[in-house]
Give the backbone structure.
Amino acid sequence: MLLERIKERAKKFDLTLSDVAEKTGISPNTVYSWRKKTPRSDKLKQVAELLHTTTDYLNGLTDNPDIPGKPEKHGLTWQDLDMPYGGEIPDELKGMYKALAEQYVKDHPDSLKK
C-alpha cells in the first residue's frame, strides 16, 4: 500500500518513483524496497514533504492526503519551477518572474497557441 500511495501521489506532480528518489536523495533501490520493508521515519518524512502530504496518508492510516492545519497555498513555489528548494518564492522575486513571463509572451505570441 505504501509504495502505491507514493506512486499515486507522485503522479499528481508528474513524478516517477525514480524522480522521488532523486529529489529526496534516497536511493531508488531503497524506495522500491518499501514494497516489503518499513521505511525509516526520516526517509518517509522527506517523501511526504516532497509530495505535499503526511506520512499517515502514505502509510494508509488516513485517506486524506491534505496536511492538517496547513493553509492552502496559491502562490508560486520553487517546485513549480522544478527547483528543489522548499517553500514559496519570495515576493521580491515573483515580480521578476512575472515580468520575464510577460516579456516572453510579447516576444513569442505564438507560444500561447495550441
The radius of gyration is 17 Å. The mean pLDDT is 84.
